Amino acid sequence: MFSFKFKKTYMPGGTSLPHAKDTASLAPVRIPCPQSVVIPVSMHIGAPAIPCVKAGDKVSVGQLIAEASGFVSSPIYSSISGTVKKIDSTISSSGAPVTSIFIDSDGEMTPYAEITPPDVHDYASFIEAVRASGAVGLGGAGFPTAVKLDIKDTSRISEIIINGAECEPYITSDTRTMLDRSGDIREGVELLEKYLDAKKIIFGIEENKPECIEEMKRINEGDDKVSVVSLPSKYPQGGEKVLVYNTTGKLIPEGKLPIDVGTVVLNCTTLAFIASFIRTGLPLVEKCVTVAGGAVNEPKNVIVPIGMRLSEVFDFCGGFSCEPRKVLYGGPMMGICVPDLDQPILKNTNAILALTESETPKETQTACIRCGSCINACPLHLDPTAIARAYKKRDGALLESLHLGLCMECGCCSFVCPAKRPIVQRNRLAKGVLRKHIAAKPKG
Ligand code: SF4
Ligand code: SF4
Question: Are residues 223 and 137 in the same domain?
Answer without folding.
Answer: yes
